[in-house]
Every structure is written in structure tokens, then in C-alpha cells.
Design goal:
The protein is mainly beta. The protein has no helices and four strands.
Length: about 70
């Protein structure tokens, strides 16, 4: 197991893409909650969407839909 993020923000709820090449996760790394993706090696981190008000399910589970 390797740590792929290293910043003072909250990163969590990681989920693998079906092809194993990407990881989606939630984070507040830019000061607001959002959903991010990165390559399996931790590179190419990018924000997919903002999540300014966290819905109840946000802390429950994330799933990758093809």
C-alpha cells in the first residue's frame, strides 16, 4: 500500500475505476468539497465537480459507473 496524496486537506472515500487506471475520491483540497480523479500512481489529479453542500450519501459510499 502506498500513500498517493500528501496535503493538509481531507481526502477520502477512494474508489477504483473498472479498468484499474483511475481512482476517484472526495476532497476539500481547494477549500471547497468536490470529487476528484487521479491516475493509479497518484499523478494527473483533477477536479471533476464541486460539491458545495455535502449530501448524506457523500460520506456513505461512492461507486464508479461505466
Amino acid at each position: 500500500m502506498s500513500r498517493l496524496t500528501n496535503n493538509p486537506s481531507s481526502d477520502g472515500l477512494p474508489v477504483w475505476s473498472p479498468n484499474g487506471q483511475w481512482i476517484a475520491f472526495r476532497s476539500d483540497r481547494d477549500g471547497a468539497w468536490g470529487i476528484y480523479v487521479m491516475r493509479a500512481d497518484g499523478s494527473n489529479v483533477r477536479k471533476l465537480t464541486d460539491a458545495p453542500v455535502l449530501p448524506v450519501w457523500f460520506f456513505e459510499k461512492m461507486a464508479w459507473k461505466p
